Request: fold
Amino acid sequence: MRQVMMMMLCAIVVACWTDVAVSASSETDTLAVKNMTCELCPITVKKALKKVPGVNGVTVDLSKKSASVVFDPEKVKPEMLVKATTDAGYPSAVEKE
Reply:
């Protein structure tokens, strides 16, 4: 029983450490997304963006017609995010800061 508990604790520590390492090299971009007209649209946009390898998180706001994407810049370029939403039927562009 003690070994099982120690293994679980080690797994949790490794998982947390991995998340910290990922977030240290993360970047966030906001996309202006067109064609979102109903409550199902953000779900489709979010799914399309999450399929891009290297995307760590997505938040879609229907009222602002935008998507905030956290990603690994070594694996993902903003153009890949735009292509993912466009291919799903929702053309987008990276918002200028």
About this structure: The chain has one domain: 26-94. The chain is about 45% helix and 25% strand.
